Fold:
Amino acid sequence: MRDAKSILYERLSVAFSEVSLGADPVLRPSAHADFQVNGALALAKSLGRNPRELAESIVAGCDLTDVCEAVEVSGPGFINLRLSESFLVSQALQMASDSGLGVGGGQEGSRGRVVVDYSAPNVAKEMHVGHLRSSVIGDALCRLLEREGYDVIRENHVGDWGTPFGMLIEHLVDVADGGAVEELTVSDLDAFYREARTCFDSDEEFAERSRRRVVKLQSGDRETLDLWRLLVAESMRHFEEVYSRLGVLLTPEDVVGESYYNSMLDSLVEDLDDLGMLVEDDGAKCVFPPGFTNRDGEPLPLIIQKSDGGYGYAATDLAAIRDRVDDKGAKRIVYVVGAPQAQHFAMCFAVARAAGWLPDDVEAVHVEFGNVLGSDRKMFKTRSGETVKLIDLLDEAVERAVSAISERGDSVSSGIESVARMLGIGAVKYADLSTERTRDYMFDWERMLAFEGNTGPYLQYAHARIRSIFRKGGVEGADVTIVPVIRDERERALLVALVGFGAAVSEAVATYSPSKLCAYLFDLATTFTSFYEGCPVLNAPDAESRGSRMLYCEMTARVLADGLGLLGIEAPEQM
Structure:
């Protein structure tokens, strides 16, 4: 099913191109129309023409009679579009009869393979609030990309190699025997890591032993590898627990740690050298991609191999690009990583392109995001100033949701624990996803668990309330073959909102911004509220209106549940 926005865009693009090759319309919802077309004003300025006259010529060159009942030029050159009733009804019928609600880019995987790199915790450390945004944004993007017809490969690029493991393993050997190591939990390892870091920074003899331990690890020393595997196994157990609690679709099979690329790094350096791209700088082997400079205007190096022979993140990330393109066949690689890494990825992409490892037909995208802040607008910490553990945050979310449900006095027949889990976890995820991803946001329990405003609980409650209509009516759902009727402007407004679902999903994918879908779902829920308050459903004036309005309710509930599902959030049937 092709949604209204896509059809309008295609028709208007032809008219815009006839005026000026390459010009594109911009369609946005408007208070004055279903869609307002912008772009004519800027185009008129570039062409030195009267904007209103240009807009009128675009309208004259575009046949929208089968889609719109009114097309008019307003103000200095805006084009207002009002969809026709027959078009809305035909779109609604297609949407209602489609299990995918008219959303999707064709057969699964038909649009090419995408590798999405997200979450990326470190072995031997507990996941904390700093992993929240990458995990939930990455998970939502994977779900959205799959729905749009992409073949998605999830990759969890965990930190499991290098100097940190040399010092951690050396410290474990100093203070524990093998049996004790096997009994350590990830919390124990977190404390051991801090102790090891203290020793490394204060004891040069320990630091030297730790460096030698790294060499043993890289060369395959049995004792060292056995200890390393114990660290990895316990960490994976912890990661699985967090992902399960968070509702993120990452599995152990999706983990591709830094260790995976270790055997590829020597040949990577040799290839860069053969290409004439390597430059030795203070003993380190570097590449200086054009266009990158430091604060003093001097060329900025991407360090491939350090002076001590070790490899850093740049080498591993370049090896990952080669692997994802050559072995996994990716046509797009998406990195869901915080904004501070923007320059690093830009430099890696530039070097990979220059080396021929990232061909022109393969897209590499850094999906950057802002930070989670506390009430003091600083990085979110516990009251004692420590990093907030993600598992503790999720447990608190569920506990607070139980209290919120109890305070409202809601009767939850399916079990308060189950609903509280959906509500609490959903509130945390929605608060994150509804924020435009490049912005920081303040973590506020009261706001995110509120049942009013643009929150997860508000949308979950809207879905549950609609399902209660069917229970009250003694029916399981609406007849999707019913032809909807429009007898009230609020019915029409709801229908316009419903048929915009496909466009909202496509826009979220195109911009890598789940917040676009969040904004759509919130608008749909508020539009439904207006409809429900003004258009009786079970007590409709006649059978035709009742059936039609039941269909509106059914479609709204399905879109809310489906849209929340694409965000990784569950929609309770009752609340």
The two ends are 33 Å apart (CA to CA).
